Model the fold of this input.
Amino acid sequence: MKIEPLIAAAAAELTAIRRDIHAHPELGFEEERTSTIVAQKLKEWGCEVTTGIGKTGVVGTIRVGNNPRAIGLRADMDALPMDELNTFDHRSTHKGRMHACGHDGHTAMLLGAAKYLAATRNFDGTVHLIFQPAEEGRGGAEAMVKDGLFQKFPCETIFGMHNRPKLDVGKFAIRSGPQMAGGGLFDIHITGKGAHGARPETGIDPVIIATQIISALQSVVSRNVAPLDSAVISVTQMHSGDAYNVIPQEAVLRGTIRAFRNETMALIKERIETISSGIAQTLGGSAKADVRITFPPLVNDKDAVKFIADVAAEIVGPENMNREGPFVMASEDFSYMLEQVPGAFINIGNGGGEGGCEVHNPSYDFNDEALTLGATLWARVVETRLAKDPR
Done:
């Protein structure tokens, strides 16, 4: 791997920053301490700093020369609402909060690039270093966009990066077009008629209605979605009743939907609403489905993919740059930014084998060995995209 020497020299500092953030995790839109650390480091290294974008978001800007071209690099900062099971010294100091997705590492990698770029300034144009809050389902990217992110910090293209467990450190993966699924949540409120458990004929059982709705929803992907168009509907909660001998009045179903096309997301939304209402009515009750699309699909721009893949291949070798990476059914709200500005989202290896613990797991930790590689990729992306005129 061709790690930039100045970035390699900062490895211990980046590791310390990453582990400090890991030990003090903050949930979405609550990243006050993390944002303060990011802003202080950016200022210390000579970047322009803007805080409060999307509530707790931070943007660092480095301008060199008079070239009007500008690009954006994005990292997320928030943690997850879960307890950590690790026992190392930098484990979470806050019960019920944990950096279980590697956002601490993403933040440290972009800070490493910021330090290098601010010191060397070996490019011509502007780079906006975007530190986003609230990626974990709380709408941080959308909040930044609505807060005028790209009006205040115009970008011709934007790039994001996420660690990938089970992929060896020193490897990258990406793909053109849809890469990560759009995501949605649903609540189905079912109303029947309460009755004594021994006299079901006097009531309308919402539990029976709920089970029929659950069964029917399993046909949506197999019979309404085209076979070559992937989608998932998962009913993950069912709530009804309080007593053994009472047929309840109401039931509630909740779950999630995923698909790689906005059109498919819309189709699934319509089918959930129609099926729920129709089955409930057939069985004598009523149902109201509330389906909310929380993330659009993440769609990479073809030219941006080729560009960042070529840059990565120069660093780690073509054999370690997978340009046909896997589709991922999980969602990522960087998709909101990609709807506004063309760009690409690349995966960096976090470590394979038995040690490659999956994200959102209480034993997960970001692999510090990837910090200098990620920072080097960001630095090379800027220096290549905004290369100085050789004349």
